Amino acid sequence: xxxxxxxxxxxxxxxxxxxxxxxxxxxxxxxxxxxxxxxxxxxxxxxxxxxxxxxxxxxxxxxxxxxxxxxxxxxxxxxxxxxxxxxxxxxxxxxxxx
Length: 98
Prior knowledge:
Layout: H1 2-11, H2 22-44, E1 48-51, H3 65-80, E2 83-86, H4 90-96
Parallel strand pairs: 1-2
């Protein structure tokens, strides 16, 4: 499914978007690495589902797609008996914290 989504994003010009730049994504991963280790890996270990990199194109927002993906991750974690974690921007914190 991710492979299909990546192809769809690339076909829609996602590879030329500023937020789709591989260098920016690598820099973001690098910046998150210490916090991810401290707050997630050291606390919960690696046996978990980590929801990450969730984005919705503007024309598909407010249609429930992101909510469905998050719900799928939570349901899978419950079925597998593992913790589900995510990190969020300040805007995302409002969404995920209810």
